[in-house]
Amino acid sequence: MLAQNTNQSMLNEKIMSSIKDTVHASGYAIVTLNFQDYAQNNGTIKTNVPDMQKIQDLQSLIDNIRSSGYHITTINELPNSFKPQAQWATSVYQWSQDKISSVDLLKSMAQQGTMDIGSNLTTIPSWVKHDAKLQTTGQISDDEFLNAIQYLVKIHAIR
User: Fold this and answer.
1) Of 10, 48, 109, 141, which is most buried, counting CB atoms within 10 Å of its CB?
2) Going by DSSP bridges, is the β-strand pair 46-50/39-41 parallel, antiparallel, or unpaired?
3) 117: containing domain
4) Which of 72, 93, 116 is the last residue of a domain?
């Protein structure tokens, strides 16, 4: 894994070597980029102007990564297990594992402003736990789960 403040002067070969070693050891590598590392420097401070040579070096590194057969992804494309969880998602996980009650889950979702579900709801059908487990494992998205809950409230399946 490369540190966030990787020095731009580090040669692409060293970065590539580090990526290969990390993929071999862990199955993946994380490379973070800071826009400041690709800005021109006026001698004492970074400016708000891109350094085109650094950008070209970065493009060369990206091309090398891709030609080596590695997939590049953004943080938004990572599986849910790598993303920070919303507070309500933690409550959904706890409910799916029978660690909190339906009442506690609904209160948590209402308090966190996840959706306008009202404060008098107390019952969620037990079969909804299957969907909760799918959400907590990333098999359905947060939006899909929340839309399903909103629909169940609308048709009074959750009451």
Assistant:
1) 109
2) antiparallel
3) 80-154
4) 72
pLDDT in tens, 83-113: 556 778 888 888 988 999 988 888 888 887 7
Whether residue 130 sits in one domain with residue 84: yes
**Angle 138-125-105 from CA coordinates, rounded to 5°:** 60
The tokens for 109 are 């979702």
Residues 93 and 147 grouped into a single domain = yes
pLDDT single digits (tens) 37-61:
788 888 788 788 888 988 898 898 8
Q: How much is the pTM?
A: 0.47
User: What pLDDT does residue 83 have?
Assistant: 56
| Amino acid 87: pLDDT | 77
85 and 150 belong to one structural domain: yes
Q: How far is CA 147 from CA 93, 97, 118, 127, in A?
A: 17, 21, 15, 16
Amino acid sitting at position 104: D
Task: Return the closest-CA partner of residue 50 out of 41, 59, 39.
Answer: 39
For residue 83, what are its two tokens? 């993303």
Q: Which amino acid is at 143?
A: D
